[in-house]
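hey so u asked for the seq, here:
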Amino acid sequence: MTDQTKDLLNAISSIFLWCWIGGFALLFIWLGVTQLTGDFIHKFHGPMFGLSDHELDLIFYCGMGLLKICVLTFFFIPWLAIKLVLKAQISIDAGSQRAS
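ran it, structure tokens below
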């Protein structure tokens, strides 16, 4: 693996890491807003869409679960895979340098 490829993979993994952090920050903000302004959300959106409090809570928590799954699938797992590949490549490079 060339140094240019390693630099590219490091840059991509950095982007994935920041997207993962941002996704979970969004999730915590969503949770905080839902918990702190729950009554307002229920009174405002419930009648607007004809939803009960239970149905609105269910929609919010299913949305949060979907966001969590998407963030883990699209950002954390690729970040982890790239980091494992880079770590394995470092081990291979160190082994080949000792052999020579």
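The mean pLDDT is 92. The first helix runs from residue 3 to 36.
lmk if thats what u needed
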